[in-house]
Each structure stands twice: as structure tokens, then as C-alpha cells.
Amino acid sequence: MREHPHPHHPRVPAGEAVTTTATTTPTTGLATDHGLRRHPAPAPGCTVCALLIEWFGHYAGTGPRHDASAAVDCAVEIRNHPHDPPKMTLKRHAPPPPR
């Protein structure tokens, strides 16, 4: 078996098996923070920040619900408090509970 970077490459003879390997590097925390910042803290008594911290936890988790970009958006919005006007809109309800 011959290894080749792309299975439909014109230099691979028809009928020959092709092996491709994909590797991923596990990461912790948010990629854009590089582990240098603590998790955002909501402003006391702010309903918007309280919801944002829930969404941050939802998006920063692992599994199919993980969305680092959305988690960073929430963190930035919390850190930019007070909001006038907010840079992002929130869904009306809190995120669904983890399964």
C-alpha cells in the first residue's frame, strides 16, 4: 500500500489503495487566550453577564457543543462590561443542560 496526501491525486494509479492520516492536537482552554487569562467573571447584579457566563460554560465545554469562537465572543463581551450597547445578541433562554 502506498501513502499519498490526497486519494484523488492524478498520480495515483486507478485501483491502487491510498492511505491518508489525519492528526489532531488536543487543546485545553480557549485557543485565542493561550491559557494566559482566567475565565471571565460576570459583573455583580448584571443579568446579561449572568447569561453570558452560562453560555460561556456551555460553549467552552467538551463534546459536540464545544464552540471556541462562541466562547471567546462571550468572554470578550463579559470583559467589556458595562455594555452600551452589547456587541452581540443573546438567545432568550439559557443554554440547554449538558447530557
From TrEMBL:
Residues 1-41, 79-99 are annotated as: Disordered. It comes from the Bacteria. Residues 12-32 have a biased composition (Low complexity). Residues 1-11, 89-99 have a biased composition (Basic residues). This is Uncharacterized protein.
